[in-house]
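Subject: VOC domain-containing protein structure
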Amino acid sequence: MPNPVIFVDLPTRDVEAASEFYRELFGWKINGRPQGVFHQVIAGEGVRLGLWNEREQLPDPMPRPPQPRSGPQPRTYILVDAAPGEYLNRAVMLGATALWEQTYWEEFDGHHASFLDPWGNQIIMWWKSDGKALTR
């Protein structure tokens, strides 16, 4: 396939805190490269993630001041190994803001829930349940 997506970076004001948030929530391994500035997230197979410091903006050679976010933002989908509602509850306990509770999307035969992490990144957790709808 030509031109595949290979990496997605999530901006944050606090790379260390964001690393701990995602390590605690999803059990991801995170490598600081360099520590506190850019962290590589090892989240299993597929596209890799990174957490980058909004102030330093590596690898941008001419970083600009962080801009306030407004309007719709890109959404990052995470394939989870259990009902998304379970992850949503943990995310909220860790400081995230719930956007929607677990719901079933019939067209794609899967369940999803969403939150904003403490740094404003929208995450959607997706779970395929072998065609068996959970209680809606």
